[in-house]
Amino acid sequence: MELIFEISKPGRVAADVPASDVPAVNIEEIIGSKYLRDELDLPEVAEIDLVRHYTNLSRRNFGVDLGFYPLGSCTMKYNPKVNENAAALPGFTGLHPYADTESAQGNLQLIYEMQKYLCGIFGMAEFTLQPAAGAHGELTGVMMIKKYFEKKGQKRKIILIPDAAHGTNPASSALCGFEIMELKSNSEGGVDIDHLESLMTEDVAALMLTNPNTLGLFERNIEKVAAIVHGKGGLLYGDGANANAFLGKARPGDLGFDVIQLNLHKTFSTPHGGGGPGSGPVGVSKDLVDFLPIPRIVKKDEQYTWTEKFHDTIGRVRAFYGNFNVIVKAYAYIRSIGAEGLKRATEMAVLNANYIKERLKPSFDLPYDRICMHECVFSGNRQVAENGVHTSDIAKKLIDYGYHPPTIYFPLIVHEAIMIEPTETESKETLDTFCDAMIAIAKESKENPEGVKNAPVTTPVGRLDEVLAARKPDVCWKR
Length: 479
What we know:
By secondary structure, the protein is an alpha/beta fold. The chain is about 40% helix and about 10% strand.
């Protein structure tokens, strides 16, 4: 595909602007010559060429509306457009952020009710919707944990993080001044209880645990884990990035979690990816309610108002109150499918992941062969050992089959990891064609490994030098 500068022809224009009847002035005399850009090198194209160029560019992008997008741990599911339409209503999009509370009662009511819905779904005492995304929610949760122990007069300095955790967990903890200690996984892919007991001292503030974890496995010993942490006075933090696996089936608050952060943009119907927008609500148990960010919404006599009267709060963590548009979509999603719909979504997500696991098990190594939750994790070790075909080669070959590759090389404890999350929105037919493609690639890895290693061949740009692209990116075109 040619660049727009390459189709440019002198004299061609995309618009016919009528002559101005405003008297001409010498702009240079008014603002000075240094602000003028007379030498702008802009393309000259006809309107039809301009439209076709950007239309063709848009068709080269890949999204869940175009095809299967099985990124593990990212929940790239299709989101009903009705929720987008609800969030686009003028009453939501047209309200000024600084509007007085009397003019924003409906919006405040939606935020208030959304927090109550999340409390019911996740079994927490209270929620804040202020954080802008999941990692920001993590930071908010750890800040509350730190303030909690400061008020108790305890100088706890360590946070335990499993070896299969998301990378944002140690980052959030370190930003709050905590030391990080790695907790090992056992042979089943869960928490190593003996290792936890050896690490859990009164210097430990919290264990940050993703459940189900990034291996797609539910922590079988979760109640014992919670008891060990609480037994030493610590707190159990839940990374709720994988909430799509247990909605309506299990509530973190009932399992012993003291804090949990969510990703509304993953679990509750906002398109995920592209840098935003996100939303990272944080729920807490009753012992941590006073530490929630301010301002908070209170309801009195059917009126909703803001309040900042909480002495132990960590303060404000974001300008205004969260990403409101994302909150509206999540609210519409919950109201439209209801409690049974959330439960059904979880059941289908888990069923789909296990279906893929069983279909691909003969073709790829399965490090943890047990019932998975929302995602399954394979290894490309077999392909590497037999023919030198790596997971990255398999991922690139999938592009030639029309699929976005799944997450690869994560979690780090699985060598040559292939992490697949089908979500609940994909049909059996889609899963079958995807599995057929993966099986075909496994076969080609044996019969024609060089063909896999040279993929993709159907894209505008073929195999890139990944190291050079990362260290010396060339993002500026020159004539």
